[in-house]
Structures are given as C-alpha cells and as structure tokens.
Amino acid sequence: MAVLLDLCDFYFTGDDYRYRFEPNARQRFIDLIRERFNTGVPYKGRVLKWDTIIEQKTGALGGYLTGKRPSLDLIEPAPRLERFDKRELRSKILHMSYSQAKQLGISKNTLHYMRKNATNCGSFRVYAKVYERLNSTVAP
User: Fold this and answer.
1) pLDDT, tens digit only, all 140 positions of the chain
2) How far, in whole angstroms, is CA 30 from its chain's centroid?
3) Which of 98, 100, 120, 131 is the most buried (most CB within 10 A)?
4) Smallest Cα–Cα separation from 126: which of 80, 81, 83?
C-alpha cells in the first residue's frame, strides 16, 4: 500500500502562518504511520512490531531512571531509512531502451510502469528481481 502526500495535500492559513493537512490527506498520513508501526523488525532473535519495541524500550527507560537497570540501550533496533529510488536508478530507467530492457529480461510493461514512476517526483520502489537486473553489466 503506497500512501503518498503531495504539496496539494496541504493548505496555508494566513492568520497563524501554519500549513495544515487536508482532511483526506490527514487520514492517509495516519494510515501510513499505522502501516509503518505494524511492520516486523528483527530484535533479540524475534520479529516484533514497532509498537511492541517502543513499549519495551519505555519500560527499560523507566527501569533505568528509577535505578533498577544499570544501563540503557536506545540504539537497537535502529529503523532503516533507505531510499531505493536513487538518482542513478531513475536515470537508468528513464534512458533505457526497450531492446536493453529485453536483454536484461525486463518486459515492456514493467519498463513502462517503471518509467511512469520514475518521472514522478515522489519515492518509488522496484522489485528486488528487477533491481538486480538493472544493476547487471548491461549499461543504459
């Protein structure tokens, strides 16, 4: 589920100089946060959801502040904030010909939709198998 916010989802209030969310954009943003918090994260040999990890870390902080725990680790697990839509990848997709895509085993439809997504200014994803093919030896 890709939930994106765009500049048109905000409006400016002149009286207090703040930007506000449109109501439907606010719900999309809440859904995006809910989706992120419900993703699994490997932590201490198990896969936990972020809300569970935050609850555990809050308890650990309370124990540390009251002196019941000698140390506090707020570093692990660290969220991965990677972007998969680097400029080089966008450029490669936009400049790739159909014959080059065919050599890599990428269909016309896949290339079409990748180009469509790469022309938008927002973030986009590429399937792992296609990403590997794009990073193979055939240059655009």
Assistant:
1) 455 667 777 777 777 777 777 888 888 888 878 877 778 888 888 998 888 898 999 999 999 999 999 999 888 888 766 655 577 888 888 888 889 888 888 999 988 888 888 887 666 778 888 888 888 744 44
2) 15
3) 100
4) 83
CA distances from 110 to 44, 101, 102, 132 (A): 38, 9, 11, 14
Up-side HSE of residue 84: CA atoms within 13 Å toward CB? 13
CA 25 – CA 37 distance, rounded (Å): 18
Output the CA torsion sign for 9, 25, 55, 53. Answer: negative
Sign of CA dihedral 127, 130, 131, 132: positive
Give the 3-state DSSP-derived string for 41-103, with helices as H, strands as E and coil as C.
EEECCEEEEHHHHHHHHHHHHHHHHCCCCCCCCCCCCCCCCCCCCCHHHHHHHHHCCHHHHHH
